[in-house]
């Protein structure tokens, strides 16, 4: 063989063995033809489906060479087959690597898809959590505001209760002081002179009434001893009163309504300027008052300047009023004082004086059960004479009257204030 064969095969993907053998035979045939043609340079390219072969022909080794000498084994057909087998193994290894890479790529794609879905789900969950926690924060804020408002209300109630407790403490102190006063009240002997009654028959309110009632002119007030008589007179309404021969007047009877107290609450307190003196001897009232005033006006006896010294005949006690306050308090601390009376010293008991103040007064309109108002009385004679004639008329049982306790006539042209005492 005149021209050596140098070939360089660089397949991207090696072809099958049978195809390579065919290509080798084609190269040999071509080489033989080209070598006999002369010493010119020729090349032939054979393409397969997935590879190509580049074959170079040179006139002689001495003229030109592009590559180094191949391994001796590659110059033979067995070497080429070994090389093909080697590349086939490399190809198979590459296929396995490609398969592994494809599988790894698919796994990575699956993981990527899973991570995307998980990320999307976590994003949705995060948005839900953010919305939930935002609502929860708003709810907690509203609860906090409600608790703060409740705390403020409780603080107000605490302050109110503390004020009430302070007021109760003050009242307790005052009541204790009053209790101490009641314990030191002047002694008075009582003698029972009456009848016993059931507890249900007791009166809820008992007081001496002192009520003024305005009377128009030409009217009269008559109070009977019996309630039935007054009721009968008011039922008859019109009454003819004989005043003499062929002289009579017609009067009308009406009930009398008065505003009376139904509930009275009195608050008492210790007077800082008054003392109550008891355990006094029987003597001239004026001399007794002078002796007491002189004794308690002296500072050496613990007294002070006296404003008023008054005797209370219903209890037989004396009230002394001082100009300055707290003098009475100092004197009360010593219960018994020795005072010179009738040339001898007598132990006088000094106790606090209570002032009463009405704190609650409730009234109601009540009809007088025994008093009748007569109207329409003309002014035709003297006041006393006409009043006597009215009393005579309404005392007679034949006229529906009865025993009269009191009568008052007010002529026309005059205005009087009638006084109601215990005759109601």
Automatic annotation (TrEMBL):
GO terms for biological process: innate immune response; regulation of innate immune response. InterPro entries: Nmi/IFP35_dom, Nucleotide-bd_a/b_plait_sf. GO terms for cellular component: cytoplasm; extracellular space; nucleus. Residues 220-307, 318-406 form the NID domain. It is found in: Cytoplasm; Nucleus; Secreted. It comes from the Eukaryota. Keywords: Coiled coil, Cytoplasm, Immunity, Innate immunity, Nucleus, Secreted. Its main location: cytoplasm. Transmembrane segments: none annotated. Residues 130-178 form a coiled coil. Belongs to the NMI family. This is Transcript variant X1. It comes from Nothobranchius furzeri.
């Amino acid at each position: 063989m005149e021209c050596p064969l140098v070939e360089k095969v660089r397949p991207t993907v090696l072809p099958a063995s049978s195809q390579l053998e065919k290509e080798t035979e084609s190269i040999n045939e071509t080489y033989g033809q080209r070598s006999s043609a002369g010493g010119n340079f020729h090349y032939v390219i054979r393409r397969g489906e997935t590879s190509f072969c580049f074959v170079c022909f040179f006139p002689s080794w001495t003229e030109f060479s592009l590559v180094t000498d191949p391994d001796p084994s590659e110059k033979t057909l067995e070497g080429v087959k070994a090389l093909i087998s080697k590349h086939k193994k490399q190809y198979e290894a590459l296929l396995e690597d490609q398969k592994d890479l494809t599988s790894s790529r698919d796994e990575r794609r699956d993981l990527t898809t899973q991570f995307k879905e998980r990320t999307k789900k976590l994003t949705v969950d995060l948005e839900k959590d953010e919305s939930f926690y935002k609502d929860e924060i708003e709810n907690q804020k509203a609860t906090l505001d409600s608790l703060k408002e409740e705390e403020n209300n409780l603080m107000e109630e605490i302050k109110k209760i503390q004020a009430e407790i302070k007021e109760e403490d003050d009242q307790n102190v005052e009541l204790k002081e009053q209790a101490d006063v009641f314990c030191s009240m002047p002694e008075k002997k009582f003698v029972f002179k009456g009848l016993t009654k059931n507890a249900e028959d007791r009166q809820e309110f008992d007081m001496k009434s002192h009520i003024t009632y305005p009377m128009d002119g030409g009217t009269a007030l008559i109070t009977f001893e019996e309630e039935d008589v007054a009721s009968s007179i008011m039922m008859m309404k019109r009454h003819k009163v004989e005043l003499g021969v062929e002289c009579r007047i017609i009067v009308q009877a009406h009930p009398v309504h008065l505003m009376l107290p139904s509930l009275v609450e009195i608050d008492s307190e210790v007077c800082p300027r008054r003392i109550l003196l008891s355990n006094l001897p029987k003597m001239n009232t004026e001399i007794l008052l002078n002796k007491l005033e002189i004794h308690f006006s002296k500072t050496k006896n613990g007294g002070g300047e006296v404003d008023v010294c008054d005797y209370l005949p219903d209890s037989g006690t004396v009230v002394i009023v001082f100009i300055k306050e707290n003098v009475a308090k100092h004197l009360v601390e010593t219960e018994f004082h020795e005072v010179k009376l009738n040339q001898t010293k007598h132990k006088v008991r000094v106790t606090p004086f209570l002032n009463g103040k009405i704190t609650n007064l409730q009234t109601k309109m009540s009809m007088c059960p025994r008093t009748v108002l007569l109207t329409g009385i003309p002014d035709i004679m003297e006041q006393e004479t006409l009043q006597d004639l009215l009393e005579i008329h309404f005392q007679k049982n034949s006229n529906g009257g009865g025993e009269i306790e009191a009568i008052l006539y007010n002529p026309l042209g005059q205005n009087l204030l009638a006084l109601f005492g215990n005759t109601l």
